[in-house]
Amino acid sequence: MKEVKLETILQVYTDINEVSKDIQALMQAAIEARENAYAPYSKFNVGAAILLDNGEIVIGNNQENACFPSGLCAERTAIYYAGAKFPKAKMLTMAITASSQNQLTDKPIPPCGACRQAIAEYEIKQDLPIEIYFMGAQGKVVKSHSLANLLPLLFESSVL
Ligand code: THU
C-alpha cells in the first residue's frame, strides 16, 4: 500500500477589488447574469461568465423547473451555450457568483460537482486550462488555475 496525496491550490483575494480589471469585468458580466437567473424554487441565484480566446464573453445563469431535476446550473448553461455558439473557440476563464434571495451570501460559492465534471470535458477537449474565479454576492474571490485543480480524479474519456 502506498498513500497518494492530492493537492488543490487556490488563490484567495480579499474582494473583487483585488483581482485584475479584466477579471472584474468578467465577474461583472457574471453578476448581471446572476441577477437574471430563474430561481423561483431555491431562491439561489447563480451567474457565470466565460471569456473565450476570440474575445467573446458568454454568460449563463441557473434555470429552474417545477420538475426540479429538469433545471440546470449556471455554469453548465454557460459552458453549453459557449460550446454551441463558438464551437472552435477555447475557453480561457470562467467567473462565477452566487447570491441567495434569503440571506447574504458572503462566502465564495464553488461550482457543484456535476458542473466541475461538465467543465472538465471542455478543458480536456481544448487541451488548455480553464481558470475559474468564484465568489458569493460579496467578499472573498477564489481562483483556481484550472478545472482539474478543483476536481481531482475526474472521469475522462480515455477509459471508454
Ligand atoms: N446552482 C448552480 O447554478 N450552480 C452550482 O454550482 C450549484 C447550484 C443552482 C442550481 C439551483 O438552481 C440552485 O443553484 C440551488 O441549488
From TrEMBL:
Protein name listed in UniProt? Cytidine deaminase
In terms of domain of life, where is this protein from?
Answer: Bacteria
Gene Ontology terms for molecular function: cytidine deaminase activity; identical protein binding; zinc ion binding
Q: Which residue range or ranges hold the CMP/dCMP-type deaminase domain?
A: 21-158
Q: What EC number(s) does its UniProt record assign?
A: 3.5.4.5
Enumerate the UniProt keywords alphabetically.
Hydrolase, Metal-binding, Zinc
* Active site (catalytic residues): E75 (proton donor)
Q: Which SUPFAM superfamilies match?
A: Cytidine deaminase-like
User: What PANTHER family does the database record attribute to this sequence?
Assistant: CYTIDINE DEAMINASE
Key word Hydrolase present in the record? yes
Q: Looking at the UniProt record for this protein, which Gene Ontology cellular component terms does it annotate, in alphabetical order?
A: cytosol
Pfam family name, one: dCMP_cyt_deam_1
User: Upper taxonomic classification of the species?
Assistant: Bacteria, Pseudomonadati, Bacteroidota, Flavobacteriia, Flavobacteriales
Q: Which GO terms describe its biological process?
A: nucleobase-containing small molecule metabolic process; pyrimidine-containing compound metabolic process
Reaction catalysed by this chain? Answer: cytidine + H2O + H(+) = uridine + NH4(+); 2'-deoxycytidine + H2O + H(+) = 2'-deoxyuridine + NH4(+)
Q: Which cofactor does it need?
A: Zn(2+)
Q: What does the UniProt function comment say about this protein?
A: This enzyme scavenges exogenous and endogenous cytidine and 2'-deoxycytidine for UMP synthesis.
Report residues binding Zn(2+): C73, C112, C115
Q: Which family does it belong to?
A: Belongs to the cytidine and deoxycytidylate deaminase family.
Q: Which InterPro entries match?
A: APOBEC/CMP_deaminase_Zn-bd, CMP_dCMP_dom, Cyt/Deoxycyt_deaminase, Cyt_deam_tetra, Cytidine_deaminase-like
